[in-house]
Design brief:
Shape: elongated
Number of domains: 2
Strand content: 15-25%
Radius of gyration: 35 Å
Largest sheet: 7 strands, mixed
């Protein structure tokens, strides 16, 4: 391995050339590192976006189809809604839940309740507060007009809260045990709580007005108080009964229906306002939709994938990652070209040395190996030094990239249920507590040093092989 010793002796002797190559490699290393850091950060941000947003599949009634068929006398007011093909029945929703892509689901049903004690919020007798309401059409589960309405949920954070149309301001959400056991717990709106002097921990006596229920009063414990952010126009507001005002909406677990005495058959025939199926990753939307195709004939139902936010936020980040990958390759190719020119000039000046080495019997492989060792050694030193400055560069680029990600224009997502249209604005800055300190992963460092070695080898091989293809006599004769 004498050629290795010669390589390090040359590096030590030719200080000016060594420093020049070291500076060039150092600059190239930092640019490559910048590209890799952007790529790594954008990939991390995409994964972060997917994890934070999840993916909602919305199953609702096809209101447009129902209205058209109603006008055409295909269906009428006497039609049993449970017989409408594809309507979001609980039994239909259950067909969609056997999937490895499923993370959670929420069954939203609305029915009215009466109370001999509570005073409902009423815009006709009460001065409006800062919170106005939103309309909701009940799909035939109520038998009479009540004072208040129940909205059911099947997961700890009901859909209205996760979509930010309602905000919990006191108390807590229901536990998994309370949800599965159908505990009589309730989350009420702040206006209703203020009018009736209710607080967390109080008990309310309410009578559901459901089909098949004997209309006995039940005791519900208040576990939380929320504030509604829904807005409706004055014209719609004037036509609503008190039970349909959002201030009179009470959230309670779906399984309370089972606790009330409904059989599995009765539960299966309940028509939901909507069902929200949340997948574990937005990338699984297409395979999930393919897996449920044909399970339900959707004549009067709609299943839609709500991945607009993910596509809006992830698209620019994926583009940024692709551009950074291109940047890395451009720098590698350009760096190799520049260094090849410099190395070619250096090797041209060392023809005497090459000719003498060949004349004394040194193999061409070892001569080329000496040049490769010289360049690779300088490159590794430069790339190692650049990791310290690169850490700071990575932090700056990471912060700038993620700041751009967080400052992305807030996408708006509309979710339409049965007679209810919610427009939700998603603020990306609220999606995750991002730590803006960039860390180099082992794979990134491997790619980084591989790029350095690749550049150094390419820059040496071409000119070295060109010179060493001649015999010693030709080299020494033509030198100068």
């Amino acid at each position: 391995m004498y050629f290795t010793k010669r390589a390090f002796l040359y590096i030590k002797k030719q200080k000016a050339k060594t420093i020049l190559l070291l500076v060039l490699f150092f600059l190239i290393a930092n640019i490559v590192l910048a590209g890799l850091s952007i790529q790594s950060t954008s990939e991390a941000a995409v994964i972060l976006t997917r994890q934070e947003l999840g993916a909602d599949i919305l199953y609702t009634a096809n209101a447009s189809k129902i209205n058209i068929d109603y006008k055409n006398n295909i269906i009428d007011a006497t039609t049993d809604k449970t017989t409408l093909e594809g309507i979001p029945l609980v039994s239909n929703v259950q067909l969609l839940l056997d999937s490895p892509y499923l993370e959670s689901y929420d069954m939203v049903s609305t029915y009215e309740v009466t109370s001999d004690v509570l005073v409902p919020y009423d815009t006709r007798t009460t001065e409006p507060t800062a919170v106005t309401g939103g309309s909701k059409i009940i799909l035939g589960t109520a038998t009479s007009t009540g004072d208040l309405s129940f909205e059911t949920f099947s997961r700890p954070e009901p859909f209205d809260f996760s979509s930010e149309t309602a905000t919990l301001i006191e108390g807590r959400f229901a536990t998994e045990t309370e949800i599965s056991d159908g505990a009589y717990v309730a989350i009420i709106e702040t206006n209703l709580a203020q009018i009736n002097g209710l607080k967390v921990g109080d008990v309310m006596s309410l009578t559901p007005t459901m089909v098949g229920y004997d209309q006995n009063a039940l005791e519900y414990t208040i576990i939380g108080i929320y504030e509604s952010t829904e807005i409706i126009d004055d014209k719609t507001l004037s036509s609503l009964g008190t039970s349909l005002l959002p201030q009179n909406r009470i959230y309670t677990p779906f399984n309370t229906l089972s606790t009330m005495g409904y059989s599995d058959t009765d539960l299966g025939n309940i028509v939901l306002d909507k069902a929200i199926i949340t997948l574990n990753d937005p990338v699984n939307i297409e395979p999930y939709m393919a897996s449920i195709e044909g399970l339900i004939s959707m004549t009067y139902g709609i299943i839609s994938a709500n991945d607009t936010v993910y596509e809006t936020l992830a698209g620019p980040l994926e583009t940024l990652g692709s551009l950074s990958a291109i940047l890395v390759w451009i720098v590698v190719i350009a760096g190799a070209s520049i260094l090849s020119l410099i190395t070619a000039l250096t090797i041209s000046q060392r023809k005497n040395e090459i000719g003498i080495l060949l004349a004394i019997g040194e193999s061409k492989f070892k001569i080329v190996g000496q040049f490769v060792v010289e360049t690779v050694a300088i490159a590794l030193l430069a790339f190692t030094l650049s990791t310290f400055t690169g850490m700071e560069i990575g932090k700056v680029i990471s912060s700038a990239t993620l700041d751009t990600f967080l400052a992305t224009e807030e996408p708006t997502v509309s979710t339409t249920g049965s007679g209810k249209n919610n427009t939700t604005t998603v603020d990306p800055s609220t999606l995750t507590p991002v730590e803006l300190e960039f860390r180099f992963e082992p794979l990134v460092m491997f790619e980084f040093f591989s790029a350095g070695i690749l550049i150094s080898i390419i820059s040496v091989l071409i000119p070295a092989l060109y010179v060493t293809r001649f015999n010693p006599k030709q080299i020494l004769t033509n030198n100068g």
